[in-house]
Amino acid sequence: MDEIHGTCMSLLEAAPDTVSSSVYQCIAWLCVPENLPFQKEVLEAILEAYGGDRDLAWSTSFQQENVPLVVSLYKETHRFFSTAAFNHR
């Protein structure tokens, strides 16, 4: 819990960089146990787009937008987690 708290505080202190903060929030969302099935769905969509070739997917997927589910995920991530706001006491 201390490590998670420290990471969250670091992100909040760097709030102006909302792109990295929103991506980090999405990754945290994906790691919640009830969202693990969605991780599998995303991986399957990635592998399907690259014919099951993990090496090809790994080396080129960051340069292309071949996986509609991933495109939707990152667009919704930037929309939903567009700002970092918290009440510091």
Structural class: mainly alpha
Number of domains: 1
Described by strand count, sense and barrel closure, the largest sheet is: none
The strand count comes to: 0
State the end-to-end CA separation.
19 Å
Count of helices?
5
Rg over C-alpha atoms, rounded to the nearest angstrom: 15 Å
Shape: globular
As a percent range, the share of strand residues is under 5%
| Helical residue percent band | 55-70%
Quote the average pLDDT. Answer: 81
Helices and strands, in N-to-C order?
A: HHHHH
Low-confidence stretches: 84-89
How would you characterize the overall build of this protein?
The chain has one domain. With about 90 residues, the protein is mainly α. The protein is globular. It has 5 helices and no strands.
Task: Provide a compact summary of the structure.
With 89 residues, the protein is mostly helical. Helix content is 67%, strand content 0%.
What are the defining features of this structure?
89 residues
Secondary-structure blueprint:
Elements: H1 2-13, H2 18-31, H3 36-49, H4 54-60, H5 68-80
Helix pairs in contact: 2-5
